[in-house]
Write a structure and sequence with these properties.
single chain, Arc Repressor Mutant, subunit A, Tetracycline Repressor, domain 2, 2 domains, 11 helices, about 0% strand, elongated, Homeodomain-like_sf, DNA-binding transcription factor activity, DNA-binding
């Protein structure tokens, strides 16, 4: 028996153009992030968001069709910040033309991504929502594909290896494993995040060792 997956509209209906509309849009996102912290994923609703933002529910619906779309917008912003931080860090190694140096400094970028999440308002709650809410999981996958594509291109250029299926899979596995390390550091407050990052980076070094001389 096949179970149909209910499609949920996730994209904002329109982006604000005028200053007043932008303030309303931003107030909705700010209110949603506050409520994610206060009431959690399950209890947040468009009614609560609209009330906190000081707008009517119909006004909220001019921009977002449902609560998932609001959280999707928050998640998109967080994923973009993560990927931008990763891309900027990676670009810094291009001129050095040393792929192994990237891997030796893997703990730095793991900590960087960790800090992006921790420093974003409601970052941890948004991060958890993208994992817990089925309609939002694709956003995480898109972000990881983008990061893996950037890593594969970098490794191909710097290590002078072909951009083939093996490199593509190595890069995607690296991104997903790195995300798992960051998740571990975020979720378990009994662990020292820096220790987790360094152990995770060492694991990734070993993963790449047969492929690139370290």
């Amino acid at each position: 028996m096949t179970t149909a997956v209910r499609q949920v509209e996730l994209l904002a209906k329109q982006r604000p153009r005028q200053a007043r509309a932008k303030r309303t849009y931003d107030a909705i996102l700010t209110s949603a992030s506050e409520l994610l912290v206060e009431v959690g994923i399950e209890r947040i609703s468009t009614n609560l968001i609209a009330e906190r933002a000081g707008v009517t529910v119909p006004a909220l619906y001019r921009y977002f069709p449902n609560k998932y779309a609001v959280i999707h917008a928050l998640g998109t912003r967080l994923m973009q910040k993560q990927n931008a931080a990763f891309a900027t860090w990676l670009t810094g190694f291009l001129e050095r033309e040393n792929a192994s140096e990237v891997l030796y400094h893997g703990h730095v970028v793991l900590r960087l991504i960790y800090d992006v999440i921790r420093n974003e308002p409601a970052g941890i709650e948004i991060f958890n929502a993208l994992r817990a809410m089925a309609p939002l999981r694709e956003l995480r996958l898109v972000s990881r594909r983008e990061a893996a594509d950037g890593l594969a291109n970098f490794m191909s250029e710097v290590a002078r290896v072909p951009r083939d299926e093996t490199l593509t899979m190595h890069s995607r596995m690296t991104v997903d494993l790195a995300c798992g390390v960051v998740e571990m550091a975020i979720e378990d407050n009994q662990l020292d995040p820096d220790v987790v990052m360094r152990e995770g980076a060492r694991m990734l070094q070993e993963y790449w060792r047969p492929y690139i001389r370290l």
